[in-house]
Amino acid sequence: MGFNFDFVLSTVPTIIGAIGTTLLATVLSCLGASALGFTFEMIRRGGGATGLAVRFLIDFIRSTPVLAWLYFLYFVLPFYGIRLGAMTVGILGLSLYYSGYLAEVFKAGIDAIPKGQQEAARALSLTRRDTVVFVIAPQMLRNVAAPLGNYLVSILKATPYLAVLAVPEMLGRAFDIASETYRYAEPLTVAGILFLALALILGYGVKRIEQRLLAAGRR
Questions:
Q1: pLDDT tens digits, residue range 151-174?
Q2: Whole-model pTM over 0.70
Q3: Lesser CB count within 10 Å: N end or C end of the chain?
Q4: CA distances in angstroms from 200 to 27, 83, 127, 131, listed in the order given
Q5: Which helix (H) or strand (E) holds 111?
Q6: How does 61-75 read in b/e, with b if 16+ C-beta sit within 10 Å?
Q7: How far, in Å, are 56, 71, 141, 206 from residue 156 at the CA level?
């Protein structure tokens, strides 16, 4: 069977219909990874036994494949009475996996803040919480906005892993069509083109944000 362009067109509406699920998983996973990564980094900076434990956890997360996390959460947790939906597992798995990488991003962003800022906060008798919320976090976000945006694109490109959990994202829809028609080239090509288009759009948005931040920094 040759490549059928009419069949390509017939698959487009079904696969495009899954863009919402793909983007939802991307955004929620990025937010979850950011929250976990920042929490891990702040605990790691606290030192002590807890800090060492979190340091090991971050290294462990970064040294394991994302599919291992997805399979563990989906197939192992039910043995302990914890049953989560496929979409929830997908978002949680991607959040955990990328939190290890974003913890390093936040570490670099905090290290780039002049030490005098935290010393000034201590001189003003600010609590650790107020120092983090009002002094560290705003400056850190400006430092990490560009790499954080790049990881958003990376998470988008990782959402096809959710197809193994039967999450109806774009690649999952493409495989559904392929399993019903025994034609793989056309639906997978459509899914690939749509992922490319979304990645280019998000990448362009990240570059625009980076340019604005650089311009603001020069002022």
A1: 999 999 999 999 988 888 999 999
A2: yes
A3: C
A4: 16, 36, 42, 37
A5: helix 86-111
A6: beeeeeeebbeebbe
A7: 27, 19, 21, 13
